[in-house]
Amino acid sequence: MGKTVLIALLAAALSSATAVQPAAAGWRDRYEVYGVKGEDMLKMRAGPGTGYIVIVGLPNGAIVRVDTCQLIGGTRWCKVALEKARGLKGYVSSSYLREKGR
User: Fold this and answer.
1) pLDDT attached to residue 29
2) What ranges do the domains of the chain cover?
3) Superfamily for the 3-99 domain
4) Does the chain have fewer CB atoms within 10 Å around its N or its C terminus?
């Protein structure tokens, strides 16, 4: 999927979020997407693994909140919500997340 399409999907998802939901009690610290090469994006998926559909692409610098993480097939998958559109949730590889702080 091209970068333009992923950016359009992200923009549509952010604009369609009707209200920013407060973080649930289980949602932990903020993390930043980093280490994605070139013009690629980190794929937020519907489930913890590459077999799940891509919901949206996240560029370096995107901020997410982590709920839980689990190890599947040698990859640590984290359930995340976007910081600015917490209704948009999915799973990303923890390899591309670094703690942002509060």
Assistant:
1) 84
2) 3-99
3) SH3 Domains (2.30.30.40)
4) C
Residue found under tokens 């610098």 = 61
Positive/negative CA dihedral, 8, 48, 33, 63: positive
What is the 3-state composition of the chain as percent helix, strand, coil, each rounded to the nearest 5? 15, 40, 45
Give exposure, 38-65, as e/b (b: 16+ Cβ within 10 Å).
eeebbbbbeebeeeeeebbbbeeebebb
What pTM value is reported for the model?
A: 0.73
- What confidence tens digit (pLDDT) does each residue in 12-49 have? 444 333 333 333 445 668 999 999 998 999 999 999 99
pLDDT at 65: 95
